[in-house]
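Entry type: protein chain
Record version: 2
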Amino acid sequence: MFSTAFLDIPPLASASGTVRLPGSKSISNRVLLLAALASGTTTIHDLLDSDDTRVMLDALRALGCGIDAAGSTLRITGMGGQLKPGGPLLPLFLGNAGTAMRPLTAALSLLGGEFELSGVPRMHERPIGDLVDALTQLGCQIDYLGNPGYPPLRIRPVDHGALALDAPIRVRGDVSSQFLTALLLALPLAARKDIVIEVVGELISKPYIEITLNLLARFGISVRRDGWERFTIPAGSSYSSPGDIHVEADASSASYFIALGAIATGARGQKGIRIEGVGADSIQGDIRFIDAARQMGAEVDSGPNWLQVRLGVWPLKAIDLDANHIPDAAMTLAVMALYADGPSTLRNIASWRVKETDRIDAMANELRKLGATVESGPDFIRVHPLAQADWRPATIRTYDDHRVAMCFSLAAFNPAQVPVRILEPHCVAKTFPDYFETLFSVAEAHEIPVICIDGPTASGKGTLAAEVARLLGYHYLDSGSLYRVTGLAMRRAGLSADPQHEAQIAALASALPLHFTEGKVLLAGEDVSDDIRTEAAGMDASRVSTLPAVRAALLALQQRFRQLPGLVADGRDMGTVIFPDAALKVFLTASAAQRAERRHKQLISKGISTTLDSLRSDLEARDARDSSRSVAPLKPAQDARHLDNSQLSIEQSIDQVLNWWQEVQPFKHA
């Protein structure tokens, strides 16, 4: 998951391949609560691991549920509809998870304890008054601790015998379907007689209610439904575990890759994007996004648990759609509209305004940054397509909304070949922590950006390069370790640096499963940082470096590190030989005296005895050798920027490199 302040997505050219989606957030949090309320133990397979599900799991642990994780499965021992008596006031922090706040408000009102429910500031702006009104009709005791109608809440215990079950419980259906879902999930706890729920106004997002009813049936609750206006929970209802239950992949998350197949899979007839984990027969309403994508021209095939999507017509066809049935997935259509043959309109989407942010305003604001003309109102948005000349590089504000971040990644496939910057990309952790990694695994860029950092020994280029890579969310290449790792692999394979073994060593070098992270060198996941720093490893590195086939293999290996979203490469020849087209080249220098002092501190901290004078002499001698070599002498690239860090802290050096990087980007603000 990207934890950077922003993520720059370079212009993307095409996409193909297979993606496996995470579990559905809507199903995951419903299943977790049902398993907690039920009698018996439920084994949950393929549960979504995200911010929202972690919030729910933390709450269930606090309530006393037994939770045991084993690999990709989770075992929950339910409470059987009852809390342990006599517990103290329990505060529960629920982040910005509406799928936790709303159902838990209803369930805890009937479980018999005393609770305080709170969340992030945005959660305290998301309405819950209609649900609280419905529960207080019933006789539940709920107080607002802040603004009336919004969290945070105080819940007090109530005697089930005093609940008013004779009259129908009325709840508005035109603000959020989560209010009705919350009642349906909680009221079986009090069903000593039939309980009737009546929906006031038009029920929005009906497919989400279908998910709720489907899962209730799996846990032994058969709700009777009269249209979408009246629901009856039978007397004597009680939750029972189904034993094992599998969570479908998230259909809302599928929308981004359905869109990807429609806009980025190139010539008609190509394989396109295969999406695994969900099919057209999904119980999730957002799977109907397929119909909208087909209307816009996508070709979609489906099987029991997969989708295959290809580009059909181009440009896409404009669409005018009542999107009430796919409120989350419809946001993806707003970005697809940029690639259409005319203005597209999404209607009946008032619920967007009470989600993680006001999504109508958010989408309109950010689409305009790309250059689009956008009209919006209380319950609609109209997006005009962009001609190639009208696209602009944009810094997309995400409003801490995962779906805004994921939607706008699709703008990187624009025909103008301009990049897109996504602020706070980590917000995708709410439902799809590995979204960007998944996108980059199937996308191809016109050109992947590279930053090269070179300089003499002990100048600090490795530390600088690794930190710049971390801050940008880029891959990192420590080229100086390659010959040492190759020598280690050679020795482990029982080979020697002789000409008769050259082809075998080159084959090893070309396929080294290397990864650099947190100052470590990982070989097939094993930390070999110390192993390659021994004197013997240095000698092996010198020997293998004389073999031409090995040098060629390592050249190709280094170039393969150039992967989305970008690369910071540290070491000799990076900007002159390996990546001569790098967007930024930095030659890092410091005086020999300063470098000797740094190296001295480093060695002393490791218990290695040395003197400043000897270190300085060694460094000056090595500088002379490196700069006068006939092959690959140490010298800056002609277009490199020189950075003397003799008097700079590492933080100041990092800031300077990042400032230079901003200068060569089209974005005005980070």
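Comment: The longest strand covers residues 195-200.
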